[in-house]
Amino acid sequence: MRLSRSFLPTLKENPTEAQITSHRLMLRAGLIRQTAAGIYAWLPAGLRVLRNIANIVRHEQDAIGAQEMLMPTIQSADLWKRSGRYDAYGPEMLRIRDRHERDMLFGPTNEEMITDLFGQVVKSYKELPQVLYHIQWKFRDEVRPRFGVMRGREFYMKDAYSFDMDYASAVDTYRRMMLAYLRTFQRLGVRAIPMLADTGPIGGELSHEFLILAPTGESGVFFDSALEEQDWLAEDVDITDRQSLEKFFTRMTSFYAATDEKHDEAAWAQVPAGRRREGRGIEVGHIFHFGRKYTESMDIAISGPDGAPLYPEMGSYGIGVSRLVAAIIEASHDENGIIWPESVAPFKAAIINLKSGDAVCDGICEKLYAAAPDLLLYDDRSERAGAKFADADLMGHPWQLIVGPRGAKEGKVEIKNRRTGERTEDTVEGALALVLKNHG
Ligand code: ATP
Ligand code: MG
């Protein structure tokens, strides 16, 4: 993308409405703009990040055998009346009436819809397990939308739903999902710690939230510092083997980690004093097992091994995709701006032309840009160098390819690593090989 022609409105000043760093930086880097309270438009660069995150989430869901589908945002109230949640959900649900006076709603979550669809399709225990997911916009009329997309009213979520024939198999599914989550967050370049969590209004018995540690996080967290030192994914896990899954899960959950809602003083006292860490975290994912709550209340039975009706065991598994954009920034920035992990960055590198209009500089920049116009942002504006550097730092591209008259004469490009600040020099080919290395 050429910066001179792009819809990438960076701001020099801090917007006064933003209270936390990620919100300030998302506005300043031209990723989002608010259109109503808690509702945001994703501008081109922001959308690229959102898509990159969604794609990583998608790959790791697919890797454990979950199947992607797409359910609508608008749901019929009748579905929710069947589970009994229509009245129970309260003012967070955006209720709508259509022209025929039918009660509809903008979905805050999809347990009812997926359970109903499952019941229309699956007839026998032989078709289990089934894990289905979609990545779709949700609406929750939050009392206090704040911190930008961190707590929006409209937000983008991956939600998966599982159906198993018995508890043991549902627990396997839950553990597989925990593994997929750890792999997802690792690929996103952040550490999210699974913590024992409250099951809340969805109900159920087994539940973990995944939290990224950050002082601006809305949840209080208590955890054993051994968890920060663990390399959780070092060991191979065979996802088709119950014992292998159990071993992984036991290792993962053997250290104390709980959100304030589930904090247990007696268990906390067992953690060696030097390893007790208290802090704040951002909830980026949540997994639940809740058994037969919806299959029973909505009367979705399939035929079991003995021919008798069987109500499948369910779980649901969310990842806050739009919240993650903000959470990654909270975890990865400095005083000059965002520092994107390479896997999610909107562009792999910015090409900074220090002398736009100079034939040699322009030539090298065009050559760099032509190699991957979709992955590189070419700052071809006739701005001063300082402004270009400041914008590149603000937008957080992992690399900056700096082309000035002196180096250009020798066909050289200066390469700056945004995270370390390290600068090296290389040929056009060398520079491209480095910044595009993870792109075949
Ligand atoms: P919270 O406790 O933050 O309100 P929740 O427990 O209500 O979240 P879940 O129902 O578990 O949320 O939703 C799954 C994921 O969706 C959460 O882990 C979070 O990352 C994300 N999420 C939930 N509410 C919002 C919101 N208002 N804005 C952005 N993301 C959200
Ligand atoms: Mg939650």
Automatic annotation (TrEMBL):
Q: Which Pfam families match?
A: HGTP_anticodon, tRNA-synt_2b
Under the heading InterPro entries, the entry gives:
aa-tRNA-synt_IIb, aa-tRNA-synth_II, aa-tRNA-synth_II/BPL/LPL, Anticodon-bd, Anticodon-bd_dom_sf, Pro-tRNA-ligase_IIa, Pro-tRNA-synth_IIa_bac-type, Pro-tRNA_synthetase
Sorted alphabetically, the keyword list is: Aminoacyl-tRNA synthetase, ATP-binding, Cytoplasm, Ligase, Nucleotide-binding, Protein biosynthesis
Catalytic activity field: tRNA(Pro) + L-proline + ATP = L-prolyl-tRNA(Pro) + AMP + diphosphate
Report the EC code(s) recorded for this entry.
6.1.1.15
Where's it mainly located?
cytoplasm
What GO annotations for molecular function exist for this entry?
Answer: ATP binding; proline-tRNA ligase activity
Lineage top rank: taxon: Bacteria
Q: Could you name the Gene Ontology cellular component terms for this entry?
A: cytosol
Q: Name one GO biological process term.
A: prolyl-tRNA aminoacylation
Q: Where in the cell is it found?
A: Cytoplasm
Q: What is known about what this protein does?
A: Catalyzes the attachment of proline to tRNA(Pro) in a two-step reaction: proline is first activated by ATP to form Pro-AMP and then transferred to the acceptor end of tRNA(Pro).
Q: How does it assemble?
A: Homodimer.
The record's family statement is: Belongs to the class-II aminoacyl-tRNA synthetase family. ProS type 2 subfamily.
Q: What is this protein called?
A: Proline--tRNA ligase
Q: Which gene encodes it?
A: proS
